């Protein structure tokens, strides 16, 4: 009995200890219920209108209110408290403080206020719950900077139905010297909610998991990591103008514990009303490799020098946060990051949503630091969410991570410059990498791809930080919107300002945009150096120069996206220019599939000429398993014959039948031309030969490509998978070309491929012809083969008239479509090319078209079908395949054909999103 009772007593004692700790923690922040009656201290509740900063604003409609009211200085108060304590703050809020609509506050509502004063908090104070309290007198990063700040910060969230939190809601109240409330910000519902569920929590989980399976296809496992009830109002978080208060289950789901998304499932209708991808940081510092070598905290150097290097970089990052900001790990309580070293054909690095993965041959401090900051941001803003991963809040998250990357690699302003993929972002000149450097930039992205451009629009805050550090004149005079002259604040002060802005003034603001960041950084600088200091004047000017002050609270996209006219930069002091720019959208190409289903007929010479030709089968997949395979096609005047022989490993084919008589295997051949001709399955004979034989009386000389396809039943992607490709088009001197046709000899360059790939040296490209006298665009699928310089060449023929006003559309598998209207086109800047009017001259016979000076951007992945655009799903598909050398993953996600899906492929998709030139 004693042996059975002891564990039970231990568990009971442990539970009691946890409960006691939770209760003590609960009351340590004075989380007591609000009084149900108004406080008697009504003489303290009128705002001091004379001290309100002109940066203050109050935006409301019938259902929501979003506001930021500040004096800008800690020693000047909007209201005065009896004392600085949680109890007094609660009493203050329950006393229903008021403000005047005629004060300097920028007021925007659905109607003009009819009364002189209004309630500051447009809800019953009993619906506010205190979640955290910070005391600057205890902040180690201020002590390390030898700056004394006397302020306390209180963070509340709104609840409905007794204890259901309202997602995205907050009241942040900041108390400075002499118990002065110097700043209050909030995002609140004004309407009540019904919390009557029609579906169970378990049903909501099933709906979320089913949605995750559609969003992230082919993962090995799908699970629920966290779940809680939540009220969500899409207007409150700026997602739409829908003012419905949805009673939802907020469910964090993960695929393979690798890619995580949060889904809000309506507990009434069962629909997903909102979702976004979650970026989170691991909390266990260790470095491991797929070779089994590892090094954990405190362990001495190991035999793998790359593991030691990664270990040291993580130590540098930890020490930076610890010595500069007094922060003990990601969560401030010792949490650290896990880095995983992989074996790859070429060194690359990536972030897979849960950990940092680094290929053998590359460990970079700015890349690792960028990912580490994602964890810091999550714990600083809200555990489990951080800055929600979409639109401008996600872009702000990415920008803050780049800033930390710079902190650890301050010798330059680029990210990833030491990697094999090169620099993917430039904080000093974001447009050089396709990113905007101000809110009204033509590169500011207003579409839905990449979760609203999180890897594009981060250029705005990056440029602001750059201007803070080094100073300069911005924007360029050619923009004709005025200029700001910024004197340098310096690296250390700029980093401290942004860190305080994050941990103090962005806390609890999960949907923060650039307006929130503008307010947070200005207030943080005022706290540190004084509002009228040179540091704060130039910090403010830097953010005004990139037009962050022109953003509006509660908006998930920049002002140009919702049609607000561009104004001259504030610090220039000039009047706004006339005219209003139109919102810029994202031009989406017509979706295309992985493989052709119908191609316009090509007309060949009517005289059937006998021929016989043997062509090497080139690998579409970057794996060393396909060698010496070939296809022979011949026509004897009466029969067209095809014989294809394969020589590769059958390890991945899952063939269980014994090889005796000829056995069919789930691989077949296809001829591509006016349509697709299935040439039947391959068979294995007694001698082990793998052969596809086909014959027909039809003249198939106008079928110019042949591919070998693994059938869907043995793939993990739920679709047929082409693996080998042969170019059957005639080449001199083997066969003369038909001079009555327009022949195309096209050369293109693929992003990320600078030399002949090691294995995958073939790709199927859709070529379209438009313009001239053609009523409709003609399409055909053409095999392109790589040369030793990594250039790709394909040949095809069309029966079209000679003309001098054609354009060509080039759409490779896994790449975006480019439109070419010049014989020798040139990019205007890296990755950017805009075609002029149709002016390609095509004549009968051979036409040589050299498009090598314009890169075909990678990223439109087959999953299993391409959708014609590059978006977050393409990024997810790459990241789900990181480290993979499986055929299915290589065929879909190995964009640079180096034999592994890695950080290089991930960076190419991100880069393409930045360029945004899909046509």
TrEMBL record:
Region named Disordered: 568-601
Q: Which UniProt keywords apply?
A: Hydrolase, Metal-binding, Metalloprotease, Protease, Signal, Zinc
Q: Which GO terms describe its biological process?
A: polysaccharide catabolic process; proteolysis
Keyword flag Secreted: no
Q: Where is the composition biased (Low complexity)?
A: 573-587
Q: Which GO molecular function, any one, fits this protein according to its record?
A: metal ion binding
Q: Which InterPro entries match?
A: Dockerin_1_rpt, Dockerin_dom, Dockerin_dom_sf, FTP_domain, Peptidase_M4/M1_CTD_sf, Peptidase_M4_C_domain, Peptidase_M4_domain, Zinc_Metalloprotease_M4
Give start and end of each Dockerin domain.
854-919
Q: What is this protein called?
A: Dockerin domain-containing protein
Q: Which organism is it from?
A: Candidatus Roizmanbacteria bacterium RIFCSPHIGHO2_02_FULL_37_24
């Amino acid at each position: 009995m004693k042996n059975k009772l002891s564990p039970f007593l231990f568990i009971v004692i442990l539970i009691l200890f946890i409960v006691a700790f939770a209760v003590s923690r609960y009351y340590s922040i004075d989380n007591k219920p609000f009084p149900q009656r108004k406080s008697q201290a009504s003489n303290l509740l009128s705002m001091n209108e004379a001290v309100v900063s002109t940066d203050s604003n109050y935006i409301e409609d019938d259902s929501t209110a979003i506001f930021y009211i500040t004096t800008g200085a800690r020693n000047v108060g909007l209201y005065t408290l009896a004392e600085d304590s949680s109890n007094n703050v609660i009493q203050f809020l329950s006393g229903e403080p008021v403000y005047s609509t005629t004060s300097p506050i920028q007021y925007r509502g659905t109607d003009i206020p009819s009364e002189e004063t209004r309630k500051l908090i447009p809800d019953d104070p009993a619906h506010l719950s205190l979640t955290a309290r910070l005391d600057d007198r205890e902040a180690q990063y201020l002590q390390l900077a030898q700056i004394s700040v006397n302020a306390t910060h209180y963070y509340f969230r709104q609840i409905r139905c007794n204890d259901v939190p309202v997602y995205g809601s907050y009241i942040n109240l900041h108390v400075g010297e002499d118990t002065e409330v110097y700043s209050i910000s909030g995002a609140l519902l004004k309407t009540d909610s019904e919390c009557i569920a029609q579906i169970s929590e378990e049903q909501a989980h099933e709906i979320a998991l089913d949605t995750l399976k559609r969003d992230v296809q082919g993962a090995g496992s799908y699970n629920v990591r966290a779940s809680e009830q939540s009220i969500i109002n899409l207007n409150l978080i700026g997602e739409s103008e829908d003012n419905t208060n949805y009673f939802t289950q907020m469910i964090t789901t993960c695929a393979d514990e690798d890619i995580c998304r949060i889904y809000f499932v309506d507990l009434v209708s069962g629909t997903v009303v909102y979702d976004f991808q979650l970026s989170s940081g691991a909390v266990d510092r260790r470095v491991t490799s797929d070779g089994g070598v590892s090094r954990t905290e405190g362990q001495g150097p190991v035999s793998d020098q790359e593991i030691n290097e990664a270990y040291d970089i993580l130590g540098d990052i930890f020490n930076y946060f610890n010595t500069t900001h007094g922060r003990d790990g990601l969560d401030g309580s010792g949490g650290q990051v896990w880095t995983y070293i992989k074996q790859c054909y070429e060194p690359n690095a990536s972030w897979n949503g849960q950990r940092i993965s680094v290929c053998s041959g590359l460990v970079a401090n700015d890349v690792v630091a960028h990912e580490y900051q994602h964890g810091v941001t999550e714990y600083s803003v809200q555990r489990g969410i951080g800055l929600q991963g979409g639109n401008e809040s996600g872009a702000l998250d990415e920008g803050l991570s780049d800033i930390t990357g710079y902190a650890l690699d301050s010798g330059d302003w680029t990210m990833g410059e030491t990697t094999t993929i090169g620099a993917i972002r430039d904080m000093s000149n974001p447009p050089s990498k396709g990113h905007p450097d101000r809110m009204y930039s033509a590169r500011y992205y207003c579409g839905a791809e990449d979760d609203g451009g999180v890897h594009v629009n981060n250029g705005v805050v990056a440029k602001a930080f750059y201007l803070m550090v080094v100073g300069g004149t911005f924007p360029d005079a050619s923009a004709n919107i005025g200029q700001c002259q910024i004197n340098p604040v310096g690296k250390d002060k700029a980093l401290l300002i942004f860190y305080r802005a994050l941990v103090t003034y962005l806390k609890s603001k999960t949907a923060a945009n650039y307006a929130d960041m503008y307010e947070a950084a200005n207030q943080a600088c005022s706290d540190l150096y004084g509002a009228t200091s040179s540091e704060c004047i130039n910090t403010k000017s830097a953010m005004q120069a990139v037009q962050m002050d022109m953003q509006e609270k509660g908006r998930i996209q920049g002002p140009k996206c919702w049609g607000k006219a561009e104004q001259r930069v504030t610090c220039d002091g000039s009047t706004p220019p006339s005219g209003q720019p139109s919102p810029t959208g994202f031009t989406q190409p017509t979706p295309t599939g992985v493989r052709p289903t119908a191609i316009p007929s090509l007309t060949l010479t009517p005289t059937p000429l006998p021929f016989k030709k043997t062509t090497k089968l080139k690998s579409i997949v970057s794996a060393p398993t396909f060698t010496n395979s070939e296809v022979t096609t011949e026509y004897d005047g009466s029969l067209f014959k095809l014989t294809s022989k394969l020589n590769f490993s059958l390890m991945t084919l899952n063939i269980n039948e014994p090889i005796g008589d000829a056995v069919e295997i789930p691989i077949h051949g296809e001829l591509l031309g006016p349509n697709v001709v299935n040439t039947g399955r391959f068979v294995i004979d007694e001698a082990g030969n793998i052969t596809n034989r086909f014959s027909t009386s039809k003249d198939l000389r106008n079928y110019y490509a042949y591919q070998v396809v693994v059938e869907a039943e043995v793939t993990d992607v739920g679709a047929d998978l082409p693996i080998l490709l042969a170019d059957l088009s005639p080449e001199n001197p083997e066969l003369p070309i038909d001079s009555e046709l327009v022949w195309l000899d096209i050369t293109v360059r693929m992003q990320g491929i600078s030399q002949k790939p090691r294995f995958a040296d073939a790709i199927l490209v859709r070529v379209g012809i438009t313009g001239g006298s053609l009523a409709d665009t003609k399409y055909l699928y053409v095999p392109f083969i790589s040369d030793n310089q990594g250039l790709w060449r394909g040949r095809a023929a069309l029966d079209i008239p000679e003309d001098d006003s054609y354009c060509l559309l080039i759409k490779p598998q896994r790449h975006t479509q480019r439109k070419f209207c010049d014989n020798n086109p040139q990019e205007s800047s890296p990755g950017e090319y805009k075609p002029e009017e149709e002016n390609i001259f095509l004549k009968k016979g051979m036409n040589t078209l050299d498009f090598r000076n314009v890169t075909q951007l990678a990223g439109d992945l087959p999953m299993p079908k391409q959708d014609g655009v590059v978006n977050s799903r393409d990024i997810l598909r790459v990241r789900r395949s990181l480290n993979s050398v499986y055929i299915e993953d290589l065929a879909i996600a190995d964009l640079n054909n180096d034999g592994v899906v890695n950080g290089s492929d991930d960076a190419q998709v991100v880069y393409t999103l930045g360029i945004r030139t899909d046509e």
